[in-house]
Amino acid sequence: MNTVYGVFGDPIAHSLSPNMHNAAFIELDMDCTYHAFRVSPENLKDALLGAKAMGFGGVNLTVPLKQEALSIVDADPLAENIGAINTVDFKEGITGHNTDGIGAKRAIEEKDVEIKGSNVLIVGAGGAARAIAFQFARDGANITIANRTEQKALDLSMDVSSVGIATGCGIESIKDVIDDCDILINCTTLGMKPKTEGTIATAEDMHPDLIVFDIVYNPLETRLLKEAKKAGAKAITGEMMLVYQGAEAFRIWTGVEPPIEVMKQAVLEGLDI
Ligand code: ATR
To answer: Ligand 1 center to residue 66 CA distance, Å?
Structure first.
């Protein structure tokens, strides 16, 4: 019988997850389908219990449900640390996971970049920054978090210090710390359409050995990544974090190795690039 998967969120119409997972199921000839469901926070518990009762294979959660889910599902330690869940599995009870950080990790590692022992500057202190900071700190990176609202950077770095090495500062300190950085990750919305001129740093701030990863994928080549190329630094585009977070969810649900290239093409087609 066909197994149903899905993503719950609101708004949800523009999610690329159905494209990505359905392409993977077709590629692997699996009798599964993935749909988008509009679910409000008030209805999340009923929706998850219903999905389990109906034999869903698993679901992803997106805005505004990721934090809400913590009080409903059995969260693994990383999701508990991050304080948000993006993947729910129904095999043993209802378990919650967060694959956003691992998505970023794999996007960077596929470029032959070692995370353990590297100095990573994360700019931003929202949900995405939180997931990446916890994942990378656990993986042995030295984390600096810079944010426009400095207090949020300090609070996040305090939280992350429970699992690894982290310090926080204001966004104006980027220039002071970037020289000692191996990896720079933009977790702010700067550079996202329609304000594509925004950037957290310019070529003058960067050195050629820097790896620059932008989680913004709309546009794919952001101003930040253009600046990185100008500086001779390695630029990594954001769609791979989306692909790898989905791939990790796929692995959790099915135990099957996901077809990364097919999933990437589905995302790029969905982005109309
Ligand atoms: P997400 O969950 O996707 O990480 P978020 O929680 O809304 O999104 O976080 C957005 C991040 O972008 C925040 O770190 C925000 O900085 P503040 O904490 O100071 O609000 C950052 N951000 C948004 N617009 C920005 C801008 N114009 N300049 C610098 N940082 C900005």
So the answer is: 17
How does pLDDT run across 168-196, given as a tens digit for each residue?
Answer: 999 999 999 999 999 999 999 999 999 99
Q: Which ligand 1 atom sits closest to the C-alpha of 152? A: 18
When pLDDT is cut at 50, 70 and 90, the band that residue 112 belongs to is confident
d(CA 253, ligand 1 centre) in Å: 31
Q: Among this protein's residues, is 234 annotated catalytic?
A: no
Is the distance from the beta carbon of residue 125 to the nearest atom of ligand 1 less than 6 Å? yes
Ligand 1 atom 5: residue of nearest CA:
126
User: What is the pLDDT, as a whole number, of residue 239?
Assistant: 95
Residue identifier of the C-alpha nearest atom 9 of ligand 1: 126
* Model confidence, pTM: 0.95
Q: Rounded to whole angstroms, how far apart are CA atoms 129 and 110? A: 20
Task: Name all domains of the chain by residue range, CATH numbers in brackets.
Answer: 3-98+240-270 (3.40.50.10860), 102-237 (3.40.50.720)
